Amino acid sequence: MSELDLSLARPILEGVSDTGANGLKLFVQLLRGMVTLRADLSSPSVAAAVKDVTGSDMPDVRKATENVLWMSTDELLLLMPYGEGGAVAAKLGEALAGEHHLAVDVSDARSLFKLEGGAAREVLAKGAPVDLARDKFAVGDLRRTRISHIAAAFWQSGAEPDVFEIICFRSYANYLWEWLEESSREGSMPGIL
Amino acid sequence: MTQPNRLDDGGVLIDRSHKIKFFFDGKPYNGHPGDTLASALLANGVKLVNRSYKYHRPRGIVSSGPEEPNALVNLGSDATHEPNIRMTQIELHDGLDATSQNRFPNLDADIGVLNAAASRLYPAGFYYKTFIHPRHAWKYLFEPVIRRIAGLGKAPTHPDNSQYEHTYAFCDVLIAGGGVAGLVAAKAASEAGARVILAEQTERLGGRLLVDDDAEIDGKPARVWLEETIAALEAMDNVTIRLRTCCSAAYDHNYCLLYERSGDRGEAAQVRHRLWRVRTARVIAATGMIERPIAFHYNDVPGVMLASAVRDYVKLWGVSPGEKTVVYTTNDDGYRTALALHEAGRTVRAILDSRKDPSGPLVEKARAAGLEIRPNTGIGKAKAKRNKLEQIETVNFDKPEAPGKTMYCDCVAMSNGWSPVIHLYSHSGGKALWDEDAVMYRPDPANPPRGKDAEAMVFVAGSANGELTTDAVVAQAAEIASEALSQLGMKTSAVAPSVTAVTETTTVPVWCTPSPGKAGLGGKHFLDYQNDVTVADVALAAREGYESVEHAKRYTTLGMATDQGKLSNINGHAILGKTLGKTMAEVGTTTFRPPFTPISFGSIAGRETGNLFKPVRQTAMHDWHAAHGADWEPVGDWRRPYRYQRGDEDRDTSIHRECLRVRNSVGILDASTLGKIIVKGPDAPKFLDMMYTNMMSSLKPGKCRYGLMNNENGFLMDDGVVVRLDEETFLCHTTSGGADRIHAWFEEWLQTEWFDFKVYVANVTEQYSQIAVAGPKGLELLGSLDSDIDFAAVPFMGMAEGTVEGCPVRAFRISFTGELSYEFAVPVSFGLALWEKLHAKAEALGGGVYGTEAQHILRAEKGFVVIGDETDGTVTAHDVGMSWAVSKKKEDFIGKRAMERSDLTRPDRKQLVGLLTEDPNEVLPDGAHGVENGKAIGHVTSTYFSPTLKRSIAMALINGGRARFGEVIQISTAKKKTIRAVICDPVFYDKKGERQDV
Fold first, then answer.
1. Fold for the domain defined by A14-30+109-183
2. Which of A90, A170, B124, B834 could cross-link with B537 by S-S, CB 3.0 to 4.6 Å?
3. Is the pLDDT score of B122 beyond 70?
4. Are A106 and B167 an interchain contact pair (Cβ–Cβ within 8 Å)?
5. For the packed helices B651-664 and B852-861, what is the interaxial angle rounded to 10 degrees?
6. How close does chain B come to A119, measured CA to CA in Å?
7. What residue in A sits closest to B260 (Cα-Cα)?
8. Is B652 helix (H, G, I), strand (E, B) or coil?
9. pLDDT category, B518, cuts 50, 70, 90?
10. Is B85 exposed, middle or buried (0-12, 13-18, 19+ CB in 10 A)?
C-alpha cells in the first residue's frame, strides 16, 4: 500500500537574492497550500465557511488578509500550509453543500515570491501598471495585474520595510525571478515612490 | 584649440572654468560643461555638419532645440552606436565622439553632391514617376544605388550594452515643459494639493526666460522670480520634476509617454534611457513654440539659422555663430536677436524687415542702438563659398525685379513668426484652429481631446497656446491651470504673478521671398531641409493634383522623417494654399503623431531583452529534459521536448527509436502542457453540452470522453478528453496552446450569454504535471509500481485516483498513440519525482522517454487529428470524418446551426483522407497541394515516414476525398515536381483499435 510522501514535493525554484539595492531582498517562498474558492462572496454562509477554514474575515475588494486574497468579484484564493489544500477544499465543499460554489486545491499552480525593502515599490512599478504611491497602496492592498509580460498578483504584507508577496503561474516562475532580480539592480530605480 | 566664435562674456549655461575635449569626425575640439554639441561646434567655428538627404547639399546647424532638421549625427561606436541624434540636444561630455552622416567619403568632399547638379531631374514625386519599369531594376539597380546614396544614419551593427528601463507612474497633473508657463501651472497645481509630474526635455528649467529676461515678474527681474519659483517647487512633496525628460505622447485616456535621457552624458550611467508610462488625470502642455524659417533662394547654406537660435547661442552658451550677421525678420522678436548680437559686440550688418513700417519698443531700441533697419525688404538670395555662407543679396518686396544690395555676412538670423507646439493636444484628437491675425495654428478650445469623463483632458498653457509675450503667457497659464484643477475638484491658492513685459506688434509672414532680378533663376527655396523639399516641389504637387495636404505631404515628403516637419509644415501648407488659391484654414494641417521627437529603440525594449524578451513556460521536468538531450519545440509559450538526442545521432534516428519504443515496449511522455479546466456546478452538464459538439451530460462519473469544440461558425477550434469527476464536476482537457483561450471562451459564454447557468470554472492547467505511459509493456510497468490502484481493472476511457510511489495521482486510461496508455495527473510539485520513478521503471523494461514528434507520428499512424494541423479554422468535424462526435440528439450546441449551412454540408468539401505515396520511401512535403487539371484540390496536413509501417504516410484535406479512396492523385511540390499518391483511409495502423483496448 502506497503512502503519500510530502517530502517528494519540490518547488520549481529555491533561492534568496540579496541584491543590495536599497537593502532589497528577494525570496522564493517554499511551497504554500492554496485553494481557489469561487462563490457568491456576499453570502453569509460563504463568509462563515471561509472564516471557519482560515480564521479570517472576508477581504474587501482588492484587499488581502493574512491568508485570504480577493481575486475577483466571485473568487478568493485561500492560503494554508502546503499539504492541507485538499483537506481545506473538501471542508469548504462540506460546509457549502447545496450552495453553488467551486473549491479546488491549487497548491501547486503558482509560485510565491517575497520582495522586501525600501525600493520594492519601484521595482514592481517597473512592470505593473499599478499606482504604488505610499498613500495609494499600503499593507492589505492587493492587485491582480501583470508584471512585464506575465499575469501576476501581489499584495503588501508588511511596512517599514515594505514587504510585497507576489504570485505568478508556476511555469513562469523562472521568468519572474529573473525579471525581479534584474529590476532590483542598484541604481536603476526612478526614485519617485 | 581655441574657440574662435566663443564670446568673451555671457553664456548662462556654461562653466568657463572647465574645458571638455570632444571629437567630431575624428577631429578634437574643446568646449565647456553646459555646452551642447551644437553650441560647442559653433564656438569652434564649425559650420558644415551634415549633407542633405536627397541633394547632398552642405548643411549647418539651424536651430538650438528638438526641431533641428539638419544637424543629425552618429554618436558612439559599436555597442554604444546611436544614429540620427540631434546635436542641439546632445549635452557635451568628456570624450564625446560624434561622426557626421550621409556623406561619402567625407563631409567636405561628398560625391553625392552630383545629385544636386542633376536636381532638375528630381522633381516632386520623382520616385513615383521614375522607378516603375523595368521591374527587375528595382532589385538590382535602383534599390542598391538609392540605399547607398540616400538615407540618414547607419543602423548599429553591435548589440547595445546600455541599460534601459521602464516605469509606470501616476499623477493628477502631468505638466509637459518647464518654461515659465509650465512653472506657473506647476505652482498652481502643487498648491492645490495635486500630485504633479513636471517633465522638461532639456537639462534646465526656465525655457525662454533664461534668454529673454526683459520682463519683470512680481516686481522682480525674471531671473530672480525663476530661481525662487524653482526652489519653491523643489520643496514641494507632491511635485516630481524630471529634467532631460520629454513628454513624447499623450494617448487616449491620458496615457502618456515620457522619454527620459538620464544617462546620455558619458558617465558610466546605470540607466541610459527610461520610458515612463504615465496615467494622469489631466495634462498641461506647456510646450512652447517653434520659430519658423523663411524660404528664400538657397536659404539652406550653412550659416542661415533661426533668429531665436542665434540668440540662444549668444545668451545661453556665449557663442556667436557669425562675425557679421544679417537679421531677416517678419516680426518684432527678430530685433531681440539683433540687439543680443549687438550687445555681445558682434556686427549686425542689417535688419531686413518684411513689414513696410516696423515700429514698437523693440524696433525703437534697435534704432536707438544705431542698427540699420531696411523695411519692406527680404533676402533674395544667399551665396555660399567653401560650403558656408558668404553673402546675401537683398530684395525689395515692391520691386523684386530690381537688383538688390549685396551684403557680406557669415550668418543669417531669420524669423518668420512662431508655431505653437500643439502636438500633445492633437495626439488624441484635439483640433487646431488657424489664427489669421497671429499667423499660427492654436488649439481649438471647443474641440479638445476628451477623456473618459468626456471632459477636456489636455490643456495648453502659455506660448503653446499662442501667447507671444511673457505677461500673456503667465496670465493664460495661471488661468488654464486653475481650469484644469477645477475639473478635478481642486482649487489653487496660488496667485498669478503680475508681469510687466515688452509689447510687440504684428507679424507679416513671408512664405516665399522673391529672388531679385529676373524671376525663376532656378535657385532652390527650401521648405523642408531634412527632406530637401522646395517651394517649387510643393507648387508642382499642387499643380499635379495633390491638393489635399495629406497627399501633398506623401508626394513631396514634406514634413516626414525624424523632425516631422517641425520647421517646414506651416510654410509648406502656406505654399500649397497659395498655389491652390486657398486660405490656410481651407488647406488644413497634417496629423500630429507621437512621438514628439524620436525615442530610442532601447527605451522601448527596456529590460525585456535576452531571457526577458519573451517568457518561456517550463514544466516541472524541464531541466530533466534539458539534461537528457531534449531538442525543444515551442508550443504556445511552452517548450516541449521534440525528441531526446543520444550522442550525435540525427533527428530521424531519435524519433524513430522513440516511436518504436512505444509500439514495442513502453514510452513515457511529458504531457503537462495540456490545458486542464475544472467546470463545476448544477448546470455544468448542460453547459458542456453547449460547448462541445458531442454529448457530455450522459458521461458517467469516473469516465472519460473525447470531445470536439466548435466556434460559432461551426469550425473546429479545440479538442480534448473530458473527465467527469462527480455529478457536478468535470475536468476538461484542452490542447496545449488552447488552455488560456478556452478558459476565456468558457468564461465569456458564462458571463455574457448564460449568466443564469450555475457554473464556475477554474483553470488548473498549472496545478498538474501530466505524464503519459504508453505501450504494450505499460501494464507491466504499472504493475511494478508501489500503488494502491489496480490498473488492470481500469477500463479503457476510465479513471482512478490513488497514490503512486508516494505521489497523489489521478490516472486516466486514454490513448493518443493507439497503444495501451495511461495518463497520470500529479500535483506539479510531485511531477519530477513521479517522472523519475516512471522513467527508471520504463528503462528497466527496455523502454524510455518519447518526445512530441514521436507522439505526432504515432497519432498520425492512427489517423488522429491535431487541431491546427488537420484544422485551420475552416474545417468542420464532418470534414475530418468525425461526424460520430457531433450529436444529433442535442437541441443546440455552439456552431450547430452554422454546421447546417449549405456550404458546410456540400459533399465536395475538403475531407480528411490518408495518402500513400507510390514510392514508399518518398515523404510528401507538408502543406503541398494536390493538383488536378491545373487546379488545387486540397493539401497535405501531416506527413511522416512511419517507422512502424516502414513507409511514408500522410494525411490530407482533399475535395470530396472520402468518395475517392483508391484513386491516384498528383501532389505538387515547391521544386516543380509532382509526386503520385493513393487516396486511402487515414487510419494506417490497427484500424480496429485493438491495441489500446486490451
1. Gyrase A; domain 2 (3.30.1360)
2. B124
3. no
4. no
5. 60
6. 13
7. A190
8. helix
9. low
10. buried
Q: Is A42 on the interface with B (CB under 8 A)?
A: no
3-state secondary structure labels for all residues of B553-583: HHHHCCCCCCCCCCCCHHHHHHHHHHHHCCC
- Partner residue facing A133 (CB), from B170, B612, B681: B170
Helix/strand/coil for B407: strand
Do the two domains B164-289+420-493 and B293-416+505-524 of this chain adopt the same fold? yes
Confidence at residue B671, expressed as pLDDT on a 0 to 100 scale: 98
H helix or E strand, kind and range, residue B734? strand B729-734
Task: Please check whether residue A102 touches B, CB under 8 A.
Answer: yes
Average pLDDT, chain A: 94
Reported CATH class of domain B525-588: mainly alpha
| Chain B partners within 8 Å of A170 (Cβ) | 620, 766, 828
Nearest CA among B5, B84, B81, B83 for reference residue B42: B5
Is residue B374 less than 8 Å (CB to CB) from chain A?
Answer: no
Residue spans per domain, chain B: 1-160, 164-289+420-493, 293-416+505-524, 525-588, 627-663, 670-857, 906-998
Q: Which stretches within A110-191 are classed as H helix?
A: 120-125, 173-183
Does B147 score more than 80 pLDDT? no
What is the phi/psi pair of residue B60, to 5°? -120, -175
pLDDT in tens, B892-935: 999 999 999 999 999 999 999 999 999 999 999 999 999 999 99
Class of domain B906-998: mainly beta
Mean pLDDT along residues B173-195: 98
Preferred mutation among A2, A111, A175, A193 to probe B, highest tally of B CBs within 10 A: A2
- When the candidates are 3.30.1020.10, 3.30.1360.120, 3.40.50.300, 3.90.1140.10, the CATH number that belongs to B670-857 is 3.30.1360.120
The C-alpha atoms of residue A166 and residue A115 are separated, in whole angstroms, by 8
pLDDT digits (tens, 9 = 90+) for B537-586: 999 999 999 999 999 999 999 999 899 999 999 999 999 999 999 999 99
CA distances (Å), origin B190, targets B193, B218, B238, B258, B424:
5, 19, 6, 20, 22
Give B787's contacts in chain A (Cβ within 8 Å): 2
Q: Determine contact, residues B633/B641, Cβ cutoff 8 Å.
A: yes
- In chain A, where the domains are located: 14-30+109-183, 33-105
Is the Cβ of B289 closer than 8 Å to some Cβ of chain A?
Answer: no
Sequential pLDDT tens for chain A (193 residues): 578 898 898 887 777 777 666 688 999 888 999 999 999 999 999 999 999 999 999 999 999 999 999 999 999 999 999 999 999 999 999 999 999 999 999 999 999 999 999 999 999 999 999 999 999 999 999 999 999 999 999 999 999 999 999 999 999 999 999 999 999 988 899 999 8
Nearest to B271 among A1, A36, A188 (CB): A188
Q: Which of A2, A128, A174 sits opposite B803 (nearest CB)?
A: A2
With an 8 Å Cβ cutoff, are A102 and B760 in contact? yes
pLDDT exceeds cutoff 60 at B822: yes
| Mutation site for B-interface testing, chosen from A1, A3, A6, A12 by largest number of B Cβ within 10 Å | A12
Nearest-neighbour CA in chain B from A67: distance (Å): 19
Q: Does A183 touch chain B (CB under 8 A)?
A: yes
Residues B166, A127: C-beta atoms closer than 8 Å: yes
Q: What is the pLDDT of residue B135?
A: 67
Q: How confident is the model at residue B132 (pLDDT cuts 50, 70, 90)?
A: low
Is any Cβ of chain A less than 8 angstroms from the Cβ of B80? no
- pLDDT at residue B779, as a whole number: 94
Chain B residues in contact with A3 by the CB 8 A cut-off are 803, 806
- Tell the CATH topology of B293-416+505-524: FAD/NAD(P)-binding domain (3.50.50)
pLDDT tens track for B681-709: 999 999 999 999 999 999 999 999 999 99
CB under 8 Å to B595, separation ≥6 — which residues?
Answer: B246, B248, B249, B257, B259
Topology classification of domain B164-289+420-493: FAD/NAD(P)-binding domain (3.50.50)
